[in-house]
Amino acid sequence: MSTVQTIDPTRRRVPRLGGLNATVLGIELRRMLRNRRTVIFTLFLPAALTLSFGAQSGWNDRAGVGNVAAYILASMAMYGAALTAAAGGSMVAMERALGWSRQLRLTPLHPVAYILMKAFVALVMGALAIFMVNLIGVLQGKADMPVSTWLQCAALALICTMTFAALGVFVGYVVPGENAMQILGPGLALLSFLGGLFIPLSQYAHTVQLIAYWTPMYGVAEVVRAPLTHELPWYAIVNAIGWCALFVAGAAWRMSKDTARV
């Protein structure tokens, strides 16, 4: 006579790191890289903009410890990283629409591990965008700044991508399906212009400058270019930290609302 064995749920082994592992990360990265539209618009568009802006007159004028071409290069690297990170985060919207996020809630994958996975993928994709823009800058041969400054600007751009990765996740939980990137793409371009990433704020009217100081792109733009310009107002640091904290809190809040549903 066979006996039925029961499983004690208290003895179940919880996966290490909440289920975060190299296999899951690899799958996420491959999913992003297979998306041709994401690769084109987030990796090659900033590089094309770098070539376009760098071809303007006055690119060899001095800017801090470098020239205008270096100033543009640092800005385009930040824009490419922000766009890429936001695109990675916004994939949450597609996963929710397809029911994948609901399926994941049936697995041992912890919500925190899920967010960390998205953050890691955003960092890797952001690093690729930064590398692409800087590679174009090297091949173009117009950017002039010390190598140490070059590396510092790139590293700061990578750190600042976390702000927009969180923004992407937040929007992905608020906006349904493919509409997330349709909002983030034009939205980030507008914020870049308004926040002084593409055009120095000194060229704007005073009223526009006051508005720009409150935008999410202003703080990170100043932080990324600080090694080049040697200028970093305290309120720019507050801006960068404040918006990052706000987007992270918003993403966590929306995720908690989503995971609370059965």
From TrEMBL:
Segments passing through the bilayer: 38-56, 68-94, 115-137, 149-175, 187-214, 234-253
Domain ABC-2 type transporter transmembrane: 27-226
Superkingdom of the source species: Bacteria
Keyword Glycoprotein: no
Record-linked Pfam families: ABC2_membrane
Major subcellular site: membrane
Record flagged with keyword Transmembrane: yes
Annotated InterPro entries: ABC2_TM, ABC_2_transport, Nod_factor_ABC_transporter
UniProtKB keywords: Antibiotic resistance, Membrane, Transmembrane, Transmembrane helix
Descriptive protein name: ABC transporter permease
Organism: Nocardioides ginsengisoli
Organism taxonomic ancestry: Bacteria, Bacillati, Actinomycetota, Actinomycetes, Propionibacteriales
